[in-house]
Amino acid sequence: MSLYKVFFSLCLSLIFTVSLPAKSAQSITPVTIVQTIKDGVGKYDGLDNPRQIKLSKDRNTAYVLSGDDNALSVFNINHKQALSQSYLVKSNKQAGIYLEGASSLAVLDDSNRLAVVSFYNGALTLFAQNDIQPLTPLTVISDHLAPTLVFKSTDSLADKDNFGLLGAWDIAKSRDENSCLLPVTKVTR
């Protein structure tokens, strides 16, 4: 297991258990591990090479984005701060879900929508969710270039990257949550 995966596994188990004191900076708050979750152990899947964790506005749900499992996982957080995986969606071209090399996500609209960018697909996907239907892709913006073409072709892809999403690594939401912001990417080969 890589050092990054070990670190992230520890972070996943600690992120919901650390509370910083309001007292002096010299105080030390003990850390209690509530739970450790590992990809492929027990019932957990979709956590290989996790890239981001984001919380819902009410802090009752955690969203984990996996770059190697090409997945987006949803975890419920209970009153004891323990996590239980409630839903998992993986990249599926036929279903219009583009998560190859999923790299970043933004939680929008009081957590009713999620915007996800995919590095290898060069895609921006807007997911909707509610109590009845979890993580349904609403909109996909992509040139629909296959990852094999993007990373194995020696030809220039500049004329094929119409949306500037190839190699998209990060996404952020605007303060009013009406827009998603992407760093400008430019294919140079």
Put the structure in a nutshell:
The protein has 189 residues and is mainly β. The chain contains two helices and ten strands, in the order αββββββββαββ. The N terminus is likely disordered.
Protein described:
With 189 residues, this protein is mainly beta. Helices cover 10% and strands 30% of the residues. It has two helices and ten strands. It has helices at residues 3-14, 147-152; strands at 50-55, 61-66, 71-77, 83-90, 102-108, 113-118, 123-128, 136-142, 172-173, 180-181. The chain has a four-stranded antiparallel β-sheet with strand order 1-2-3-4, with helices on one face. The chain has a four-stranded antiparallel β-sheet with strand order 5-6-7-8, with no helix packed on it. A two-stranded antiparallel sheet has the order 9-10. Strand 3 and strand 4 form a beta hairpin. The radius of gyration is 18 Å and the shape is globular. The chain starts with a helix and ends in an 8-residue tail after the last strand. The model is unreliable at 1-11 and 13-21 (pLDDT under 50).
